## 1
Amino acid sequence: MKPAAFEYFAPTSTAEAVRLLGEYADDAKILAGGQSLVPLMNMRLAKPAVLIDVNPVAELDYIRLDDGHLAVGAITRQRALERAAEVAARVPLIRETLLLLGHAQIRNRGTIGGNVAHADPASELPATLVALGGELKLAGPSGERIVRPEDFYLTFLTTTLEPAEMLVETRFRLPQGRHGGAFEEISRRHGDYAIVGVGVQLELADDGSIARAGIGMCGAGATPIKATEAEDLLRGQRPSEALFAEAAVKASEQADPEADIHATADYRRDMVRVLTARGLRKALARANG
Amino acid sequence: MQQPVRRKKQAITLRVNGVERDGLVEPRRLLCDFIREDLGLTGTHVGCEHGICGACTVLVNGAAVRSCLLFAIQADGCEIMTVEGLARGGELHPLQEAFWENHGLQCGFCTPGVLMAAYEFLRDNPNPTEREVRENAAGNLCRCTGYHGIIQSVLAAAEKLRAEREGQPSAAS
């Protein structure tokens, strides 16, 4: 239960990290918070020949409000985002999500970029990213590019990152006007990965109707899933129990869960329905409150 | 393409419980193993070695972390606090006293990790609710106590520490 030997680099700039990734490509893994990678290495399920430790890349540790988005550098610790005043003020859904993510010790080291790029389908933060909307900034040998979350996640633990590319910034769209969000999840114990989780963000128009609804699910498929049909149903409508129930059903129809030791596919699909409805109710109460 | 050089040792220096210590380690040397085997500080325990149980919890630059998920070279230049650093010149830390008085441990294997996690928790949250103490305790696995003693101990320690801060003797002591 000790990791296999590897060569270790600790670049201090994004450019250097990208250069190293280009040089070692398929032999290298990026080490960020290590909360997902190092367990795999300790169990020898992962044996990278080269580890590129990006923790010293200070220029990737930031939280900024930028052009209608919360822009978070890849190395930013989950704890820092959890405690950031801008998050509490402008997009509390992110804080609520992060408090469900593991435990304090994990969030003290775990990074936003690492979690988003690891693409575990049971991970809560990608579901919230998908619910809020946003963008991902990737850096590689040919420069930077922006990708939407729906184009970033391919399948289990797989994104569209090229071998020599790294995620440098996660941009969460800031909700506008009167807004409220909620993250509902089912897990066996507090801090576990979600069996199923749903992130909801509502933005209300002045007349109280729904200007925008964002719904993202985790544990409901091979990637985080955006409940686009439920969102379309909600947009422009006056909130009501009946509407929320219908939207919840639509969301569960877009879920594509697997069965595993924790739950059957049917259970997960049904929980998407239950959690979406709960999330919508809570989000509305917070938008109005 | 150059072949990776995997076993070259690196020199590191860190402050552990206020004392400067150094080492020469392969990159893959885990911090928990460095602390235990290279530094001889066996208070930090190794349980699962994959980040689930929390027995290996130490503070690195003031943050509670799972030391089985950090490589020792990553801690170069850092301040480390282990369970051996809790006692104050031979006197038990109020946390340790509280665990003693409230049966916060049985076999003691999880206890160093529980103490270090609680240390950070109470530092940042000096007046927690029981619910908050429970949520924090979820980060450490204990097979013996059923957590009741742990929760009572952390709440008692919180009271002792608050009283200490205010310069009063505490009802919990």
## 2
Amino acid sequence: MANRETLSTDPMATGRMEHARLLFPGLQGFYDALAPYMYPLFRFTVGALLVPHGVIKLMNGADKFAPGLARLGIGASLEMAYFIILLEIIGGACIAIGFLTRVFAAAVAIEFAVITFAVHLPIAWFAGQRGGEYPLMWGIFFFCIALRGAGNLSVDRSVLKREI
Amino acid sequence: MAIDQVSPNLVIPALRPFYERVAPYVYPLVRVTAGALVIPHGYGKLMAGAAAVAANILARRGIEPALPLAYAIIFLETIGGACVAVGLFTRVMAAMLAVEFAIITFVAHWPAGFLWTGGGYEFPLMWGVVFFIIAIRGGGHLSVDRNVIGREI
């Protein structure tokens, strides 16, 4: 049992996990069948929900987005606006499919640190008041993906067969 | 598939020890984040009182029986969130929270559209998916279920 426990370090990204003893051992097969899809589901959800943000900013026009960046003291704000729009569209999609996962997740995590601490936490805590809780949670999830990498069912793992 | 701690083929192999060092803490970080951040929501509702929650959040949207559900929501968003955060009765609490967040997503926030800044569904949708994932995966590393009780549902 002690040996089994040493294998149980990462239920998020691995295909299988060692369980604590189950109250209903009959559920083991169900858990094992779904487990390999949980990290891909996490990666897809966290990445894919970012894409509409970039698309909406692009359709509104980068020149409408840039002044907000300038107010934060970000120089070259129009160029940065295009960079962020591209990061949200391409980066979000790449994280969703697990392509260059760590690079994009790390970049977006940094973006979300700025969004959280410079923009939304000063306004409020709760998302209903445009507060920081949502970008904080989302940023932590991107940070988790940057640490954990592509995992199962990803382009990095299944097609490129290598990752950074 | 074997237990693959970290991708077998890294572009920068020197990063492997770092990745292997941090990997065990990623799932606990997800669990703590998803569970702990729900507590302020429950605390606010607890202070407002179940009757106010029932009237202002549930009955207003035609969700009945409003008062018993208000007690359930306050329980889930305080005790339930704390349990998910520390990994106690993880699957049960996370599954109930996932159901609650499905209703929040599709009944309460769906009509407001996608963007969270306009009260849209993206935030409860993400949160609910993560509770679903936790309900399937269970307590995992650094949880009361795994490390103290030694068994889980």
